[in-house]
Structures are given as structure tokens and as C-alpha cells.
UniProtKB/TrEMBL annotation, chains A, B, C, D:
UniProt-listed Pfam families: ACT (PF01842), Formyl_trans_N (PF00551)
Presence of the UniProt keyword Secreted in the record: no
Protein name in UniProt: Formyltetrahydrofolate deformylase
Job description of the protein: Catalyzes the hydrolysis of 10-formyltetrahydrofolate (formyl-FH4) to formate and tetrahydrofolate (FH4).
Gene Ontology biological-process annotations: 'de novo' IMP biosynthetic process; one-carbon metabolic process
Length: 282, 282, 282, 282
């Protein structure tokens, strides 16, 4: 059995020693350890992977962890077993590239998740979901129907036991109802180098400003638009010779890469959110 | 003799043919030609380098160019002779890295300019100017003395026949008096990926926002702070593990590179400003 | 009608003027022009796009071009009409990622080609071709059957009027028979930063050498293995913490990007091959 | 007092626990810990920074470390105190840019080293050393005088208590005599993306091959030319439009950056050499 443990707590002396000693006493072997201290905030972060020869009950282990370790150090913690395959829902609109990218990665065995559903406010991308045999639900969203639509979405997410949501160029604002049901579990891709060009039409704004580099940003969704904790960013060089259409085309490659990396980090339990920022372990 | 010609004018048919025919009739040979059309704005841009076996009078050539070519096509144009070495003034404050970078590049023969003066509101960097035998003028600037200080600056710039100014981390806002005397001839380095984090303390702001990439931007100075036409940008990857001090250290390398590239583009007559954006020819 | 013209010829005075004058006399309008001179080799390269209001016969235009222009300047030239959509064959083996990437880009309208066939020495990827409704031919290749297999391949390529071939991680060496039938029309993706790590297992070799950056290279296929003219390269940073498996996973993203960019350059008629190198116009 | 500890040893269970417990028992506090396991080689690597409120004798600490910890785990280890400022010698030839870069960084307080001497086989750069008040020794090297020259070099290095050597574009091959006196303590900058273009004139070779990206590599010097453990690499995009001179100019910026980063990693005790590769901790 292999467990991944994520911890953050007030910084203090002796944490690593205490945790590694605990793992040792549980007959485990630490195979990866990375830690970070935010000295400004006085917070300690750690990610461990440990292997156990004997089968362990995850519940049991977690209870002991809380009692003997986490309580003393006032830890926020999560423990994940490698046995479990997280379940990811995709929200899409009309853009094909991110949906195609995630489905082909999944199909090629690059993404260790199950994808029980694709949800959309438009019917357009249903053929793509069909190509990959993923159920597609078309739930139209208008100003008037938004509340009801989100209830339907929530119900589907619950039915399909979804663990986290990826907004793969879903062009709608997700309401607090859904955000609160999936705290730090909704990953968005924004097509700019945030915080520059938040909001609508970032490629148009980038063209207007005459930037020499464009970007894409993947972040956890919070109530404030495009202001959640950034997971991953990347950029591409552009010049005066690129039209808005060129920026959009170049941007598609950035969006694909940045979103898939952010999903990978999330799935591999490499992210901790703190103070509206992320620690992303290597 | 070698001339570099920069042109922009309303887009229309036949410009390249007309210009290359004109050069031919003047017994010149085009050795480089790059052009660009901004289709949204309907503007044509071109940069040519042409060589002449016979000595030409630049004045004569320019007069013919205006009469036979520029007038018809409503061209904005500049013609530069490679004989002339532009004169660059450096404005600095207390940061050493950009000053050192430009002076060592100059001293190593990488920058085809003369540097008649370094101006500063502080005395701190005088020893560095001395190391490279460049006259250093310390002109203190306070709220009360700003007007007088800028008059002194202007006078020195005039005396030393300065062609363009580089703000090498000069931490003062330059007033319209100077900007208007050197339109599109003042190059600033801003230590962020503009338009993100304009204004003061961009590394602190980047740290606060938790970005995964930081940047630096070189731009021509206009009256609106950090909003002038961008000449060059570059970025570096950062992570949660970098403190503000780390960002500042990483940023120094970006600032050096981006500023020196922008100066190089300007000196090589590769930039045209239009609509608060730049065309930077390759 | 829109034509793209690619030219290279001995460098000499007056070429641009002659070409633009010719286009003008044919009632055409130059909408893009880029040129390059290789001063070492004394060769002039140019790419033009020009539009014609009146319909032109491509044959006619080409004949005039040859007679009035190309002959005098000893030009090698190609003229392409935007009307024609090039036909691309994909050769694959067992790796899914490049095949998926090209098929999804094609399906999303990002690639202006037709894809009449996918050829493979293995049956494994047939389901993917089926997903996208592209005919898939499984032609096994062994040492003994190679000659016959290539004849079958050539016949299929001919039947389907294929213009160029993309080796999307096709793990076989293509023989001179096919190379000579498609000169400078076979695009390969090699999973290293050439010329480093040519040949088999480049990620293993990169790991062994301890490089801090890995790469991928797309090139036209010539008889010498991995030594053809490079079209595009890109790189990604790695560290001691990456295993060979990590390099392979990171490399997949590079391979996808670099191959799709090379295909794009080829399809947009932006490449000229000369001296075993490429000019790739912007 | 602050100590930095570098360890590598056969991988086995319990190392982190043992080390952190040892630090705890010495009244120390771990403020940074990074570890890595090379699973292929079965080797464990670790870097720790720990602070001690009470003054410690480094000798004492090291003795205890060896006795109670290192012996059992068969550790190779180094312990460095932050009190000590390493002493760096620069070897140069005729190129100015890397020498200028390191001296200005040192002068601006960016490099935590002392620079007691600059050695060169040419007199050309003496004025630069003088600008920064660093003693410069001109020791001509010819085939015949090489042995004697290296003896002089070794003597100077000894006299000035040099800890490590930086070959800042020193265009001579360093002989085993010096390499063995400074094992894994000589840092070279090679102006290519190794292993591509090892040896002489790499920019010429890169131009010839038509690569689209050039690079620079910093490595520890071993007896085999350009084949030592790589510390850092970086790259820059080039195109057909760049001449060899352009590659050389672009390359200077790469060389400056890559060499200064490698020096920084070495000085900050972030590198461990193993199997002709480096672990470079973050």
C-alpha cells in the first residue's frame, strides 16, 4: 500500500522528525518527502509518500495520525491512498481543444482518473464525448434558469460521485452553490497570464496592449472571478506580426498544456492551497 | 554607405514596388527588407537596409525620398545612416545591476552607442560610472526641487547632444517636460510582466498573488505610468519556494536582459511606434 | 484568388523590385513579403503572398513567372494556390499521443489538410483512426518483407494522392524508395534535441548524460538517420528528480507541439530547404 | 550558527528520521530539507539546512555526525558553515563578457564569495581586473611551457587559498594535474547545448547543422573534454535569419546566465556529484 500525506501547520521545530518517526512506528517507509516553510506566514507545508508492506486500514492510519501527530502540531492534513482513482467531471462550452486534449490523454493512459461525465450548456461537443464513450449532459443555462441548471448539475455530480471538476473552457461563471460544494476542487483554465487580462476576451486585450508574450493560467475557482489560487501558468512569445486570430491559435496550445499540467498536479496530490496561493510540490 | 529606412503609411497596393524601384534608381541595393501590415488599423510598416557604392548626401537622399515617394503614399518615415553613432544617457537611482550591465556591454563593444553621461538623483552609483570613465551628474530630486532638477537634466542632455534616454531602474517618475523633449526616445525597464503589477513594488505584488511566472518589461515612456508601448518582455518560472528576495534576485537577470535587448532594438533602428504599440522588426 | 510564392536563387541586386513589379503587372497585390539572404552561401530566399481580384489560371501565371522572371534570376520556385488543400498521410507505430494530437487538431479545424490514410506496421492504433473515421492500413514490416511492404505503402500513397507524409512516431526507418518518391515531403518527429541523442532511446541517453533540458526535433527525412533539415525544435527543463519515465512523459508534450508546428509550417508553405537546412518564414 | 549538510548514501529505510533526530539531539532546528532517491542507482541524496542557537564547534559536530550517523548509513557527506566565505579563482582568456558578469555580480553583492585572483594565458583582460581591484596574473601557456605554467597556477591557487575555480571562457584545456587538485571544484561554461557540439567552435557547428535553438552548458570539469557532470543549461531560440555572428552574440547572454547560475548553485552548496551527473537541490 502507498499513501500520500499532505500537511500544513504552524511552523515549529521537530515536525519532520515527528512525522518520519510516526511513519516508522507504523512500519512504513518514506519514499518521498518535500517540505516548504512560508517564513512570512509562519506556516510549514509537507508532502510525503510512504509505502507499507503490510496492508493498512486507511481509517485506522488516519485516526492514529490525528491522535498522535496532527493534534499536537495543529495540522491540517489529507491522506490519500494510491488505490483510489479520483473521479473528474468536465464542464465545457463550445471550444473543442481542451476537451479533446483531456479525453485523449485519458484514453492514452496519461491521466490517472475516471471521467464519469461531461456537462455542457451547449449541445455542440456531444459528438466528441461520444467518440470517447463518455456520457454527455446538455444543461442549458440562461439568466432565468441558472439556479435550476446548477441544481441539476449538482445532482449529476453527486450521482456520479464526482471528486473534482475541470472547467475546460466552460464560458459560464460558476455560482457559489457549486463552488462551496467543491471547495478547492474546481480547476479553471483562463486564457491569459493572470492577473493581467482577467475577465472576458483576454486575447483581444493582449493584442490591444501590444504585449510581446501571452499566457494561460490554471487556478482553483473561488467566488472572485479569475482570482483564485494559481496552480500553473505558461507563456508564449508573440510579436506585432500576430493578429488576434494568431494569438487565439497560439493560446490554444498554452491552454491545453497548462490545464493538463494543473489537472496532473491535482490528481497526483501535489497541491496545497493556503492564503489564496498554492504550494505545488515537485 | 548604408542606410536604414523606417516607414509607415496607410496600407495600399504597390508600396514595396515603389520603394524598391526608388532605391534602384538611386543606385542602391536593398540588403534587407521586412514589412508588416496591421490589417485592423489598415497601416503598412516597412524596414529596409540598403547599400550605396557611391557616397550619397543623406540630406539629398531624404529630400528625393520625400518628394518622389513619401508624399504620394503619405508616409511617416525616418532614414538613418550607419555612420552616425547614437548618444545614450543613463538615468539611475541606487540599483547597480542594470547600470553595470549596460556599461560592461558598452565597454565590451556589444552596444553601438556613445554614453556621454549618467544622471542620478542619488550619489551612490558615482563610483561605478567612474570605473568606466563616464561623467556622472548627481541631481537631487525632491517634491519641491523637481522642476528645477528637470531643467538641469534637460540642459545637460542638450549640452551632451543626447539622442535617447535609458531609465536603468531610475526610481523617479519622469515629468512631461522631459517626455515631450524625447518623444519615443525614453526607454524604461519595469520589473513586472506588464500590464500585470504596474506601479510600485511589483515583486511584492507578484509574491502576494502567488504567480508561477514573473517578468520584466521594457517600454517607451509616455505620460501614463508603465503604460507606454512595450518593446520587449521576458519571464522566468518561480514557485512557492521563492521568497520576495528570491523574486527580486531572479528579476535582476530578467531586467538586465530585457532592458539590454530593448536598447539594442532601438539602436539598430528596429522599432516603430504606432497606436501605443511597437513594431519590432527581426 | 490567393497565391503563395516561394523562391530561392543566387543573391543579386534587384530581385524584390523585379518580383513585385511582375506581380503588379499581373494585376496582383502583394499582401505579405518576407525575404532572407544567406550571405555565406550567397543565396536569396523569398516568400510572397499575393491576391488577385480576377481569376487567374495557375498554369498560365506559372508559365509567365518562369519566362519573365525565374529564368533570368535562375530561380528555384514553387507557387501554391490557396484553393488546394494538401493531402497528408500519417505513418504510426504503437504510440498514441502524436496521432491523437494531429487527428484532434484536424477534427477541430486547426489543420488545413485532408488526411486520406493512416498507415502502420502494427494493428494497435486502428481504433483511434476509426474514432476519427480515417481509413487505417496495417502493413506489417519485417526484415524480409520490408521491400514488399514499402511497395504496398507507395501504392496506397499514390492511390490516395498523398502530397506529404508525417511520421507520427513511426518507429521504422523509411527506405530511400519512399524518401525519393517524397523528397522534402516526409516530416519526422525525433524525441531529442538534435543533434544530441540521435538514434534509438534518446530519453534513456539523456537521463544517462544528466542533461538539465530535454528536447524534441521535427525534420525532413533524408537518407541519413535523424540528420535531415530541422524544421522546428523545442525544449523542456528537467532535473535530477525526473526518472526516465518522467522524461518520456514530459517529452510527449514536446513531441506533440513540435510535430504539429512543423506540419503547420509545411502546410502553410513557410519552409524552403537549402543546404540541408530550412528557412522557415514567420 | 547555520550549517548546510549534504549527504548521499545507499538508499534504505529510516535515513530522514535518523538525521532529523540527530539534529534535534544536537539542539538544532531543521529549516530546510530536500531529498532525492535515484531508484535506478539505489542512492539516497539529501540537503539540510539547520540552525543552532548555541555556538557549535564545526569539528565537534562533524565528529559526532560521523560517529553516530554517517558510519551506520555509509554516508558520503559534507558539512558547511555559513560563516565561511568560499574563495573563487577566475581563469580567463580574451572574452570579456563572463568575466565582466561575474565581477559586477560580485561587486553588487550578488555572489557570496571572495575573488582573490584572476589568472589568464593572455594579458588582454588585465584592465578589467584592475577596474575591480582584483589581482591579475598573466601566465602564458604554450605547448612547451604548459607543465611549468600549471605549476605556477597551482602555486598561486594554493597561496591564495582558493576553494574552487571558474573557467570563465578560458580557452585552454586544463590538465589532470589541476583537475585532480580540485576534484568537482572546477566549473566550466561551454557554449553549446551539450552533448551537442562538444569541442571547438560550437556556434559554427550549430549554424552548419541549422538548429532552431542554441544553448550553453555549465559543468564540472573532468578529464574527458566537455563531458563532466552538467550543473546547468539554458537555451535561446534562433532562426535561419541569424548569422554565426548573431549566434555568438545571443550566446553571450546564455553563457553569462548559465555560468552565473552554476556558480551560485555551487556556492550555495546545492550540488552533489554522482555517477558523472549532478543533483542540484532547489
Amino acid at each position: 500500500m502507498k499513501l500520500t500525506i499532505l500537511i500544513h501547520c504552524p511552523d515549529q521545530s521537530g515536525i519532520i522528525r515527528a512525522v518520519t518517526t510516526f511513519i516508522y512506528e507504523q512500519d512504513g517507509n518514506v519514499v518521498y518527502l518535500d517540505q516548504h516553510v512560508d517564513k512570512q506566514a509562519g506556516v510549514f507545508f509537507m508532502r510525503l509518500e510512504c509505502e507499507f508492506e503490510l496492508e493498512q486500514s486507511l481509517d485506522n492510519f488516519s485516526r492514529e495520525f490525528e491522535k498522535k501527530l496532527a493534534f499536537n502540531f495543529q495540522m491540517d492534513w489529507d491522506i490519500y491512498s494510491d488505490d483510489y482513482r479520483p473521479r473528474m467531471a468536465l464542464f465545457v462550452s463550445k471550444y473543442k481543444h481542451c476537451l479533446y486534449d483531456l479525453l485523449t490523454r485519458h484514453s492514452a493512459g496519461e491521466l490517472q482518473v475516471d471521467i464519469p461525465i461531461v456537462l455542457s450548456n451547449h449541445p455542440d461537443l456531444e459528438p466528441i464525448a461520444n467518440q470517447f464513450a463518455i456520457p454527455y449532459y446538455h444543461i442549458p443555462v440562461t439568466k432565468e434558469t441558472k439556479e435550476g441548471a446548477e441544481e441539476k448539475q449538482l445532482q449529476l455530480l453527486k450521482e456520479h460521485q464526482v471528486d473534482f471538476i475541470v472547467l475546460a473552457r466552460y464560458m459560464q461563471i460558476v455560482s457559489p452553490t457549486i463552488i462551496n460544494a467543491f471547495p478547492q476542487k474546481i480547476i479553471n483554465i483562463h486564457h491569459s497570464f493572470l492577473p493581467a487580462f482577467a475577465g472576458a476576451k483576454p486575447y483581444h486585450a493582449a493584442f490591444e496592449r501590444g504585449v510581446k508574450i501571452i499566457g494561460a493560467t490554471s487556478h482553483y475557482v473561488t467566488e472572485e472571478l479569475d482570482a483564485g489560487p494559481i496552480i500553473e501558468q505558461d507563456v508564449a512569445r508573440v510579436s506585432h506580426s500576430h493578429s488576434i486570430q494568431d494569438l487565439i491559435a497560439k493560446g490554444r496550445d498554452l491552454e491545453r498544456l497548462v490545464l493538463s499540467r494543473a489537472v496532473h498536479f491535482h490528481v497526483a496530490r501535489k497541491t496545497i492551497v493556503y492564503n489564496n496561493k498554492t504550494v505545488v510540490f515537485s
